[in-house]
Amino acid sequence: MTNLSRPHDVIGRTRPFWHVPLTIGTETIARALLFLTASVSALVIIEPAPYDLLIALLLVGWSFFGLELRKDILPLLILLCFYIVGGIMALPAAADTKEAVIFYAVTVFLAFSSFLYAATLSAKIERIEAIEKGYMLAALFATLLAVAGYFNAFPGAYDQFTLYGRAKGTFKDPNVYGPFLLLPTLLITYDILTKPLKENILKAGILLVLLLGAFLSFSRAAWGMTLGGALMVFLLVFINERRSVPRLKLLGILGLAGIGLIMALLAILSIESISEMFTLRARLVQDYDGARLGRFGRWGEGFTLVTERPFGLGVGGFNSIFPEDEHNAYLKAFTTYGWLGGLSYVTLVFWTLIKALPLVFKPRPWQKYIVCTYVAFLLHACVSFIIDSDHWRHYFLLLGILWAIIAAESGISRYRRFPPAQ
């Protein structure tokens, strides 16, 4: 009788285990690549970043091996293409053509990265778990280096991982690093609110590290997004939970979290250097915001200016007239991509928000992802009024995830297949 417990060669002798062929399915490879891409998404202190190279590899590879184009993500693709065409039409207005070409090339790359995520995840929404794990690893890695840099834990750490006394980790700007931590922070918050505590002890520790990193970035946008996002996730979880006992548990967690936050804030502000920076950064309006040609003053004049320029001002055109950049992603969409690009960008943001809103209240296996991604995207869309977020890699990731879930939900409605909620 043949021994089925061990592989045999043609003459019946057993072979060592290292001679057994290893079979890896295409789905395993797909998830591994998504995990790897997300895990290096924070390493952007160098360019081209490893993330950029992996996205390019995925675009080429998936295009050859079956990248599905679903009609439900066509609005995303069409509006992104209009956005890109608007930039191409604005190219002649740029003062430096070479700089403009590089800038628009980055836009094309980011736009297609968003489409890539939407297409690959809508084909199999469970792949989002690989992105979650990779993103969590990236956020933790960047934060550990940011904290080490802020406290100068090893030689050269402060110079490498801080900027102007603010933690930035593996990013070039604290104002990008802080918001990058929002999505993993919200995902952990959701798990803590909906799962037993014993399953989230490790995640609670990671959450504390991420909160410390966001605080030390001294980014007012990151502070507001983190606090507001956590409260919004709590509210959505509370609304979606119809049972009385779990609701009481949620209120208890909220109370304990509030007490813990106040105690942690008092403890960290006892460090003089942190207290001084916090006092400086906590002002709602800084000098560079409220001056005559400050951030707010430039907006009115900028929007007036673009009404006369259908093709925009081109890359760098705005700060050749005003002392600084737009610091408003919507204004920048019009100044740098013309009327076509600006209208496409604004339409895409608001269409996404409107289309995805009803989904946060539907019980689905992926409800955690739609709730947390929607809140993160909404807050990014809000802070885009005061900051240039048009080239943030993780912003386009959020956009792609939302459209993947929109497409998945459309497929469920079309074929009347309703998977059980978790």
UniProtKB/TrEMBL annotation:
TM region(s), chain numbering: 51-69, 76-95, 101-123, 135-156, 176-193, 200-216, 222-239, 251-271, 337-357, 369-387, 393-412
Gene Ontology CC annotations of this record: membrane
Coiled-coil parts of chain: none
Keyword Secreted recorded: no
Membrane topology: Multi-pass membrane protein
Keywords: Ligase, Membrane, Transmembrane, Transmembrane helix
Tree of life domain: Bacteria
Pfam families: Wzy_C (PF04932)
One Gene Ontology MF term: ligase activity
Stretches assigned to the O-antigen ligase-related domain: 206-345
Cellular compartments annotated: Membrane
Official protein name in the record: O-Antigen ligase
Species in which this protein is naturally found: Pseudovibrio denitrificans
Taxonomic lineage of the native organism: Bacteria, Pseudomonadati, Pseudomonadota, Alphaproteobacteria, Hyphomicrobiales
